[in-house]
Each structure stands twice: as structure tokens, then as C-alpha cells.
Amino acid sequence: MVYQFDQSQWWSSERLLDHQLDQIHKVLRHFSETSPFFATRLSATDIDFDEPLDLETFQTIPPLTRRDIQTAGDSLLSQKIPKDHGRLLTASSSGSTGQPVTARKTDINQTFHRALNLRNHLWHKRDLSAKFATIRGYDPGVAMAPNGKHSSSWTSVYNTGPSIQLNSAHCTLGEQIHWIIKERPPYILSYPTNLHALALRCEELGLRMPWLKSLITFSEALSPGQRSVIERVFGVLVEDMYSAAEVSMIAVQCPDVPEVYHVQSENVLMEVVDDDGAPCKVGQTGRILVTDLHNFAMPFIRYEIGDLAEFGPPCSCGRGLPTVQRIYGRVRNMLKLESGEQIFPDIAALHLNEIAPLRQYQMIQKSYSDIEMKLNLARPFEGDEEAHMRKMILDALGRPFNLHLVHVEDIPRHPSGKFEDFISEVKD
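The chain above was modelled as a monomer; its predicted structure follows.
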């Protein structure tokens, strides 16, 4: 598959789009026959499955929102997933909206993810024999400080050096720095906000990490300011990728022109649309819609992921993969402790929607001891649901905060269109 990607990345944009539309045609036909929710949605369009699909006709399908997914429930899923697509897998995400979504995938999707991940490593000429560290949120008890978790390899196909992981949701910046100095990994994958905070702390302490070869960011939008600080303090390049749990990698930083990202068109069709749903021009900021080309379990068709972006002009590297020149995702604050330490609160990893029908949430740190959690529930708590949710949140935070659960009808977005599912009002 990576070999095929090595060829397709040089296709013209027109050839890539033709390939995508041909694959989307197959996906749409499948869900028109097997997904009750999506069959109804498609019946209201002019799509003719006996004719080739063009982009304009495809764009008459209404965007799929998180609220649509929550409302549709199992009626959105395919009632006849192809058996040769392997196991049915689950991934959960709050994305940029704080609205929890559970995605269903198959082994086919996981294979594409692994191939795209491997291409990313090869694009950036990473030393596969080296140690690769991941600092991100995991479930409580997984990859905990001070030792983290150790695995024998960090990518498929090739023999590699060891892979190590540390749970950023349950450790302080000081614990992260101690772990990094002990392990000395040449590569570190983490959230932009986490690496930015680590950079500031290392600069404050006068620490240097000369063994680093590169830092890889994911999940959040990397701002130019964050990139500048991280690269200045650590003295290595930041290599960013834009991804989502629901659809895997969406865009990856170009290995030859670091200022732009290439859409991973072999796996997704990415659109950027304005407030009226019309396609944005190059350089115009709009809402991201993404279509998974190979998920035959759950139709992520024109899925509104909740972030903003700008397409760019063709890349001088010669690849036909579309370019993105800026991604505006959520800006996630750090949870601040009175000791001066900060931790990354990965609320999405808690799967709170599995306790009660949670539509949206927002956590606000009011002080070093008080946290307010706004909850938009489809119905009031029943039985011990509230107590269960409260315990899960406090266990995840790992500290005895005063947690105030506040029921609300709506949690408004920022005027920019972004949403922060965690806000700290504690001043430095």
C-alpha cells in the first residue's frame, strides 16, 4: 500500500479527484442499501448510481454533523458490513466541539492508517532504528509516570527501535521532563500545547536535549507561535500532522515545503466550505468537511469535524495532493496546579457519553481548587449516573478538586467558530 502511495502522491489533482469520486460512488451505493439513516438522506439528492459521480452532485449531500450522529444512533451504521473488511473497531472523539462521538471502523481502516503513518515516517526520513516516544492522554492506569510503557517497535513492516509511551493526562510537566531525560528519545510525538508548555519549562530551567532529532505534533492545530517557540528551545524541526480519531490522518506536513500540509487524498476527501456551504477559494477560511473513502461500517460522508482551515495553491514539491496552508483547530488550555505544574486534561478519553447521553460538555477551571463542568444532556441523570460521572472525572484528574456539574441547554462557540472543551481561568 505504501508503494502504491508513492505513485499516487505524484498524480495530478484531477486524477486524484477522479479516483476519490469513483471510490465515494461505491461507498454511497453501499450505505444507500445498508444504512437506514443515510439511505433517507441520499434519497433527497439527485445522485444516480447508474451514472458517474461528479463533485457538484456529491456536494448536494448535506454535511453530517456530530448532532446527526448522536441522533441517528445505530440507524446510521451499515446493517451489512462486508465480512472481508475484518473486525468492527471503535474509536471515540470529542473533536473540536466537545460533542462526544463514537466512530465505528474496520480493519481496512486500520490498515490505511498504518500505511499513512508509515508514509509519514518515510517522508520525513526518520531513523527507524531509533527510540520513538509518545506523550499523550491514555486511559487511567496506562503508561503512567514515572516509568511509562515500553514496546518493542513503533511502526509496521520494518524492524524498528523501541517505542515508549507516557500518559500526559496523569502527569505533570516536571514528570514528563524527568522521563524524557531518563529515556533520551530522538523522536517525541505529542500535542502542540504540551510540547509548547514543555519548551517553556525547559527554557525556564535552562535544560537542553541535544539528542532530539525531531518533534511530531498531532491532534490539535499547531499555531505559528507554538512552532516558533518549540523549534527555538529544542533546536529541531516540528513535523505536524492533522488527524481525527474518526477518520485517521487528514493532512500531513510536506517533507519538502514545511509551510504547507498535504491532504491524504488516498484515504479522505477534504472540503473547506463557507457559512453558506459553498466551496472556499484558496486562502479563504472555512469549515472542514471530510469524507472517509474506505469506511463501510459508518458513513463519514461530508462530516463536519468542527475545525477551520484554508486551502493553499499547488505545492512546489510537485505532489498533486491538495495543500492546506493553515488549520485553525481548538486551542486547549492546560490545567494549572498551585505548585506551578500543569497537566493536559484529555477529557475526550473518558468516554463520558457511555455513562449518560451527553451531547456536549465544557470544563472550566475557576481556581486551583474549583472546576466547573458544563453538561448538555439529552435527558436528566438517572440512578447513579451522576455519581459515576463525577467519580470518573475526579479519578482522571487525579487531584481532589471541588467539581461542580452544571446542566445547560447550550454551550456557545467562540466568535471565531472554534470551541474549547477545556478553559483555565487561573492567571499565571
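Residues 1-331 form a domain with the Rossmann fold fold (CATH 3.40.50.12780).
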